[in-house]
Amino acid sequence: MKIAVGVATSGRRKILACMIDRLAAQTRKPDHLFLSPATDEDIDMEHLRSVPFPVSIVSSPKGSCPQRNAIINAAAGMDALTFFDDDFFPAANYLAETEALLEADETIVVATGHVIFDGIHGPGLQAGEADRIIREDPTPDPAPAVVPAHNAYGCNMTFRLQPILAHRIFFDEELPLYAWQEDVDLCRRLSPYGKIVAFNRLRGVHLGVKAGRTSGLRFGYSQIANPLYLVKKGSVSLKWALRLMGGNIASNIIGSINPPPYVDRRGRLRGNLIALRHLLLGALDPRHITNM
Questions:
Q1: 220 and 201 both lie in a single domain
Q2: Any idea what the CATH number is for the domain that residue 15 is in?
Q3: Fewer beta carbons within 10 angstroms: which end of the chain, N or C?
Q4: 292 belongs to a structural domain
Q5: Would you place residue 211 in the very low, low, confident or very high pLDDT band (cuts 50, 70, 90)?
Q6: 42-63, pLDDT tens digit by residue?
Q7: CA torsion 121→190→228→291, rounded to 10°?
Q8: Residue 7 clears pLDDT 70, i.e. is over it
Q9: Is 140 exposed, middle or buried (0-12, 13-18, 19+ CB in 10 A)?
Q10: What is the C-alpha to C-alpha distance for residues 68 and 62, in angstroms, rounded to an integer?
Q11: Do β-strands 108-118 and 156-160 pair in parallel, antiparallel, or remain unpaired?
Q12: What was the pLDDT predicted at 212?
């Protein structure tokens, strides 16, 4: 089986280099690494000279969806493609366990792993902290448990490429920039063609680095516009979208009272309100964030 790793990156040159070092330490190396940077400055080319697998730099317009789609097209000769965020550190056996999972069950089309610690919910982690958490993982090799999942978590997700290419199911480029919930959309559109699973032996740490993320205002708008756009296109249910939006609005209202320094809750709440106003006016569109 040929397994590629794809990373769409923007504004995280140093942490990307650290993440590539963790890929180089995998017990089962990727057969190819495809990097899609937002700009030429996002990649340390000198650092890539020493990695023990082929690397290709893939050009595309800026945005999570077009960058990832460019990687999919470039990786067409592979059997599977694992997308890692540039701030996700996989445990050393991640790709070995991925290969074993896909070979054991050919009906799996999407697999996601267990995030031991997710820095997105706090101020973020440094590389050394993430390495320590992986070393101290209390259950590094748990009894295998493969369970059905609604969708993969975008920081670590593996796709069998044949269904994507055969049915032309790509990331939706109408979701611009950070493209919040693009992982859910793609998974739900792939669900008729096989299983979507979470596997507890695919383990790693999401650092939740704050550099390179979209503004609070833009993200708040996407928290309303993107779920409703997915409802309209039929990839998710209205119930799912309302629950997601309601939770985010409530968090932003509460968080705006005494906001933490690492989350722009007030900016997100403003974005929520602008989106709700656009909804009432019939003008809601995920693409509006490009003008904010």
A1: no
A2: 3.90.550.10
A3: N
A4: no
A5: confident
A6: 999 999 999 999 999 999 999 9
A7: 70
A8: yes
A9: middle
A10: 10
A11: antiparallel
A12: 64
